[in-house]
Structures are given as C-alpha cells and as structure tokens.
Amino acid sequence: xxxxxxxxxxxxxxxxxxxxxxxxxxxxxxxxxxxxxxxxxxxxxxxxxxxxxxxxxxxxxxxxxxxxxxxxxxxxxxxxxxxxxxxxxxxxxxxxxxxxxxxxxxxxxxxxxxxxxxxxxxxxxxxxxxxxxxxxxxxxxxxxxxxxxxxx
Length: 152
Description:
Radius of gyration: 28 Å
Order of helices and strands: HHHHEEEEE
Largest sheet: 5 strands, mixed, barrel
Low-confidence stretches: none
C-alpha cells in the first residue's frame, strides 16, 4: 500500500507529509512536529532530484527521512535554546529568585533551621540559623519555594 502511494504521488508524497505535519503542529502545539515536517519537506526536495535514480527506493527515503529528522530536530533545538533574548524582567516567573537580597523581619522564629517571614503579601518558609521572632534577615538564596536567610 505504501509502495503504491509513493508511486502514485511520486516525490510530492513527502511534501504532502511535511505539510500535514506542519498543520498538525498548529493543532497540537508543542514545537516538535515542526522539525519532523521540515525533515519531510527536505526529503521531498531530495526526491525531486533523485526520483529516477535506482538507489532512491522507499527504504532509502525512510532512512534519509529518519536521519534528517534527527539532525533537524537537534539543530532546531540548539538554535532555540541558544537564541535566548535579554529581558528587562529576568525573574518574571521565578518569584523566589526575585527576592534574593531583600530584607524582612521574622514572623516565626527559626527553630531547628526552619521559620517564616512575610514579604509583600506572602508568607515564605525560610531556612537558616536559629533566630528569635523580630530579627531582621536578608534573603541570600532561593531553592524553589523556600528561601535561605541570614541575619542582617
């Protein structure tokens, strides 16, 4: 069946597969099908060149497609992750990290390494040396939802 489809559509079958994958990316966003669709279009371009060649059987096309898909995916991901832009809000989605350097007063004492402070409208669990209520502390680190503090 696959053999007949390739013969009927010729080199355009890869173009069709690539466009279907790109359309699927619009419906199911995840930015992964883009790379596979692009690989199918590249194999379609190669098929236009090599369609009449004896070595360009569907098995070879499948192997080239698999290799090109891996290469394009790796290159695309490298480009996206190395193309990070400088922003004026570097801690936009890292609320705890944005609090490093701020000072606050302990609302609950730090006993056995754990206590609480209030910054803005939120209570934060803190860790640090044992300190009594009312001590001024500075946030020195954030590890997710807990802050590390030291006395000022």
